[in-house]
Specification:
It is a single chain. The mean pLDDT is about 95. This protein folds into two domains: about 240 residues, Alpha-Beta Barrel (TIM Barrel); about 30 residues, no CATH class. It has an eight-stranded parallel β-barrel, surrounded by nine helices. It is of the alpha/beta class and about 290 residues long.
Length: about 290
């Protein structure tokens, strides 16, 4: 069964799917090791990992392709990939979809922002006219070589044009063949509930901590009608906070000992990086020489 088929089967089976995200192979490896059923390659986290800069339209197709390829080398999880606006017109959308399929991506997310896009929880977003957004969504659907590949249609219209416009865009995206609908940036529990009530599923909810959307548990989101609870950049935020605190303390004290209990041991780190498997492979080959 392909990664796309696995993800489709999981969504069809019911129950909310909790999906953490990241922008590095290490984050994706740890997501798989923790037992999650899918992972999200985040444009926000990829911009942070690649450039140390925010999600303001710096990541293009080549960067997201590199991030996916690096993740695919270390995981067998189905990947949902944030492909921003598809990186251009309908021809670019076609290239993006087929390029992601060639890397074994299970689901490809396309949004309707004007380029250069920005994080969905930043102010000042602009969206393409409906007809442009629909044309690109139809291109994504038509570009698929594998009918199992899921197209996630995201709208950012809530911010600049209001919730009703976002809902109507999603209805049109569904009619055009989108598999999963994603309204980014709802600003209240009532709006989350309205999306869950008024749109056909499967639906994705973005739990971007300290962003515009109130946080809810996966169970609460499921009760509202959501199939995917996405935590796209939680690992990045934890890393920034933990590293910042540690480095600040180290600068003051010059001593890492107070932090040792909060660190992974060398043994745990090597295990997470599959050193045991590498050494076992080396030993197996050496035995044959």
């Amino acid at each position: 069964m392909s990664h796309a088929e696995r993800l489709r089967a999981r969504l069809a089976g019911g129950g909310v799917l909790v999906v953490p995200g990241g922008g590095t192979p290490l984050e994706i490896k740890l997501i798989e090791a923790a037992g999650f059923e899918a992972a999200y390659v985040s444009g926000y986290a990829t911009a942070a990992a690649r450039f140390g800069l925010p999600d303001v339209g710096l990541v293009a197709y080549a960067e997201i392709e590199d991030a996916v390829l690096a993740a695919r080398r270390v995981t067998d999880l189905p990947l949902i990939v944030d492909c921003d606006t598809g990186y251009g017109d309908v021809v670019n959308v076609r290239r993006t979809v087929q390029g992601m399929e060639a890397l074994g991506v299970a689901a490809i997310q396309i949004e309707d922002q004007v380029w250069p896009k920005r994080c969905g929880h930043m102010d000042g977003k602009l969206v393409e006219p409906r007809e442009v957004a629909l044309k690109k969504l139809r291109a994504a659907v038509a570009a698929r070589r594998d009918p199992a590949t899921l197209i996630v249609a995201r709208t950012d219209a809530r911010g600049p044009q209001g919730l009703e416009e976002a809902l109507e865009r999603c209805r049109l995206f569904k009619e055009a063949g989108a598999d999963v609908l994603f309204v980014d940036g709802p600003e209240s529990v009532a709006e989350l509930e309205a999306i869950g009530r008024d749109l056909p599923g499967p639906l994705l909810a973005n739990m971007s901590e300290t962003g515009k959307t109130p946080l809810r548990s996966a169970a609460e989101l499921e009760a509202m009608g959501y199939a995917i609870a996405l935590f796209p950049s939680s690992t990045l935020r934890l890393a920034i906070k933990s590293l910042g605190d540690f480095l600040g303390d180290l600068k003051q004290s010059g001593d890492s000992r107070p932090w040792v209990e909060r660190m992974a041991s060398l043994e745990t780190t090597n295990r997470a990086l599959d050193l045991d498997a590498i050494q076992a492979f080396d030993s197996k080959i050496s035995e044959r020489t």
